[in-house]
Amino acid sequence: MAVDMRLPTVIKAMSLSVSAADRKDMVVPGDVITSDTGFMRGHGTYVDEDKLTASVAGEVQRVDKLICVRPLKTRFNGEVGDVVVGRITEVQQKRWKVETNSRLDSVLLLSSVNLPGGELRRRSAEDELTMREYLQEGDLISAEVQSVFSDGALSLHTRSLKYGKLGQGVLVQLSPSLIKRQKTHFHNLPCGASIILGNNGFVWLYPTPGQQEEEAGGFYTSLEPVSLSDREVISRLRNCLLALAAHKVLLYDTSVLYCYESSLQHQNQNRLHWPTWCLQGNGLVLHARSVQTLKVNR
Amino acid sequence: MATVQVSEAEKVYILHGIRDDLRVDGRGCEDYRHMEVETDVVSNTDGSAKVTLGHTAVLVGIKAEIGKPRPLIPNEGYLEFFVDCSANATPEFEGRGGEELGTELSNILYKVFNNEHSLDLRSLCISPGEHCWVLYVDVLLLQCDGNLYDAISIAIKAALFNTKIPRVHISSDDEGGKEIELSDDPYDCMRVDVENVPCIVTLCKIGHRHVVDATLQEKACSVASLIISVTHKGVITCTRKVGRGSLDPESICEMTEAGRRVGKALHSPLMKLLQQEESLGKKRQKVGFLG
């Protein structure tokens, strides 16, 4: 049993060596972007006395004559094809309402899910009545955005064997702007756990499934106890994710893995210290390593 | 209290983890989250403290006023508690939503702190039957991530340690009445003896085991909790069971023993930290709220 009490310390701002060319144009609400009237205003801007002013805090993006400000901290704005992790909030007639950290609850239609057994048939009245047997309030799912309604609500689908109800694991809720867009968001990390980096900021950590038994569209959730070594890996990954998010590092499989490897130096003598180490951060080490790899990849 | 939704599979994961003494964030069943304590954060109070326990943040301010002692106990001062659950913590507390939780918390605080075993209330008396010090303790919940009682009790103990009550002289004026004079020197004050002030430990029953310092996810998996207040000598001053589930007597005994062990171990690091902070004196860099 351990108690870890400290006096609070001021978190010093890290100074990174970023060249002037790389430095992005950051604005805060009220900053004048340009006084030139020839530009079209996009999202995040407004015109105040013939001057284009920012209404959100973020970076300025210019595309020809269009200026918009992309905010740093925002609700999830889904695009078609995004992978999301969401929680069922309501069971309605022929659809489920899913919470995905966006402005409106997303919608998962009954016709957009795979039926158990993988059958392809017309949904009947019986299917409607047994909706709750498949997905209840509080369940977690991984899904893909199929389309966006006119009011901005997302329509999801789980029409692939890799999407569906999620089983045992840990959910970490972060900001959507920290998740890097990649080709695939499902990773089996070499340290022994698997991760789903949802574009909406919800990250799901789970033990790597053993052999793939006949998939039923992600319908069957195993309630077998997870082994202790897998649990340790998942706990360590969770703390790494929170540490990276606190230092505003972009999250993708490589950055999470680097953080995990650096954290292995702080072994189990005092388990309690992982979170505190994480929060006080090897932030500089991580930034340095990720900048290095980006330079290599170019 | 703010609630989160947890799926069945997540509950099973948490339960099995606690059974194996490895919680979701890597702690053991009797470990606390990272705690930060700072005193003297509010300048216009006589004593204040801010405690951050994981993501739970609590601010306590204490003001000492001269008042009339209670008629039945004329030679003791007393404490008045008020807990404000601000909407800052969670949208559920908006408007009057936080009132119920606030009254529940302040009732327990009265039971735990406002008695002669925790504080020497006689030292708060100025003249028996007429004047005494009343300490108004205001608790503000800034962020809510589980385990409110523990954080509040640590903050109250730190704030009481930080409280400086000005010294008074009683003199009789011309018409035979009593006149109270506060001393001119702002540093001439008396401190409250916080040695016997208890700390509250909340134990949640999850599955067949109990955990200390539960997060909101773990709270969603438990049906009953036990709140115990323990002094530095290991004496239990108050017990209360909360939650809609039931506890059988054996597990209550077990949880009480664990609570006593954990509570006893809370006091010495806290006192050491408070004394270390005080010894820094003027050199201390105040962090406050924007650190």
From TrEMBL, chain A:
Residues 75-147 form the RRP4 S1 domain. Transmembrane segments: none annotated. It is found in: Cytoplasm; Nucleus, Nucleolus. InterPro entries: Exosome_cplx_N_dom, Exosome_RNA_bind1/RRP40/RRP4, KH_dom_type_1, KH_dom_type_1_sf, NA-bd_OB-fold, S1_RRP4. One of its GO terms (molecular function) is RNA binding. Pfam families: ECR1_N, KH_6, S1_RRP4. Signal peptide: none annotated. One of its GO terms (biological process) is ribonucleotide metabolic process. Keywords: Cytoplasm, Exosome, Nucleus, Phosphoprotein, RNA-binding, rRNA processing. The keyword rRNA processing applies. Residues 26-63 form the Exosome complex component N-terminal domain. It comes from the Eukaryota. One of its GO terms (cellular component) is nuclear exosome (RNase complex). Residues 169-208 form the K Homology domain. Belongs to the RRP4 family. Component of the RNA exosome core complex (Exo-9), composed of EXOSC1, EXOSC2, EXOSC3, EXOSC4, EXOSC5, EXOSC6, EXOSC7, EXOSC8 and EXOSC9; within the complex interacts with EXOSC4 and EXOSC7. The catalytically inactive RNA exosome core complex (Exo-9) associates with the catalytic subunit EXOSC10/RRP6. Exo-9 may associate with DIS3 to form the nucleolar exosome complex, or DIS3L to form the cytoplasmic exosome complex. Exo-9 is formed by a hexameric base ring consisting of the heterodimers EXOSC4-EXOSC9, EXOSC5-EXOSC8 and EXOSC6-EXOSC7, and a cap ring consisting of EXOSC1, EXOSC2 and EXOSC3. This is Exosome complex component RRP4. It comes from Fundulus heteroclitus (Killifish). The lineage of its organism: Eukaryota, Metazoa, Chordata, Craniata, Vertebrata.
From TrEMBL, chain B:
It comes from the Eukaryota. GO terms for biological process: exonucleolytic trimming to generate mature 3'-end of 5.8S rRNA from tricistronic rRNA transcript (SSU-rRNA, 5.8S rRNA, LSU-rRNA); nuclear mRNA surveillance; nuclear polyadenylation-dependent rRNA catabolic process; rRNA catabolic process; TRAMP-dependent tRNA surveillance pathway; U1 snRNA 3'-end processing; U4 snRNA 3'-end processing; U5 snRNA 3'-end processing. This is Exosome component 7. Component of the RNA exosome core complex (Exo-9), composed of EXOSC1, EXOSC2, EXOSC3, EXOSC4, EXOSC5, EXOSC6, EXOSC7, EXOSC8 and EXOSC9; within the complex interacts with EXOSC2 and EXOSC4. The catalytically inactive RNA exosome core complex (Exo-9) associates with the catalytic subunit EXOSC10/RRP6. Exo-9 may associate with DIS3 to form the nucleolar exosome complex, or DIS3L to form the cytoplasmic exosome complex. Exo-9 is formed by a hexameric base ring consisting of the heterodimers EXOSC4-EXOSC9, EXOSC5-EXOSC8 and EXOSC6-EXOSC7, and a cap ring consisting of EXOSC1, EXOSC2 and EXOSC3. One of its GO terms (cellular component) is cytoplasmic exosome (RNase complex). InterPro entries: ExoRNase_PH_dom1, ExoRNase_PH_dom2, ExoRNase_PH_dom2_sf, Exosome_comp_Rrp42_subfam, PNPase/RNase_PH_dom_sf, Ribosomal_Su5_D2-typ_SF. It is found in: Cytoplasm; Nucleus, Nucleolus. Transmembrane segments: none annotated. GO terms for molecular function: mRNA 3'-UTR AU-rich region binding. Residues 32-166, 196-261 form the Exoribonuclease phosphorolytic domain. Belongs to the RNase PH family.
